[in-house]
Amino acid sequence: MKLHITYDHPIAINAFEWTPATYRQPPHVHASLEIGLCLTGKGCFFFGNKQYAANPGDLFLVNNEERHIAQSDPDDPSRYLFINFDAALLLAEEPGLLLPFSYRSTHFCNHIIGGSPLAKQLTPWMLAIAEELREKSPGYLVMAKSALIQLCGRLLRHYNGLLTDDERQNMVQSVRQVQSLAALVEQRYKGPISLGELADELGLSVSRVSRAFLETTGYRFSDYVSLLRIQAAKRELAGTDKAVAHIAFECGFQSLPTFYRVFKETVGMSPISYRQSMGVTE
User: Fold this and answer.
1) 22 and 78 share a domain?
2) Which of 11, 19, 102, 111 has the greatest number of beta carbons closer than 10 A?
3) Could you read off the pLDDT of 198-215 as tens digits, one per residue?
4) Segment 152-162, tens digit of pLDDT
């Protein structure tokens, strides 16, 4: 089952607490990246065929490809804090921060044991993100983003040391290709754009860069282009009084029905409802 994630803030980060069921539910996957912190209780966390015991203080890394689900102990149900975020957020800042999430599931341990040096480094940043998004004090968006970058930077330093030279070289190469492609997309998404043309410009194989882009970001190329267009449209809807149709075409959509459909699928409401929720009237 693939979950569609929407974000509750203008920045693509969610923080939420969750208590898993005491029976094993069907696993799911989502395009966003995720880090879970077991706050209380006990249970298990399943990643494909892998199973980890969960105890207070334990952390779990979730990428955009691996099917996963948590389960609570019936006698001592677990409760988690999850930080869920869009890979595009890191891609725009420092693509290398995506390396810890570019793992191949069969050779990767998703479990960071509570009380370990790495867990002690990560936990305060997890709690800081959740607090910023909950309290919404002045500057909370940049503070939450900064805390996420600190968190992922520490993950990068840890996992980089565990890779072989060949693994590191292959992963860095993929991330650099994705970075180059993403940079061109960000320059041109408001106009007609195709993967074939950009790959040819970069001297890359379409199939290779398409696969690397999906594995690194969790997005198909076309979905990423739509995401950038929707993000631009959200900024225009919230910050200007331009007509919705004008915004749609200005942001790269070729038809209004497509814009309305993609906007509602991505944001969870219509463009007009979103504008109203931001306090802007027609």
Assistant:
1) yes
2) 102
3) 999 989 889 888 888 887
4) 999 988 887 77
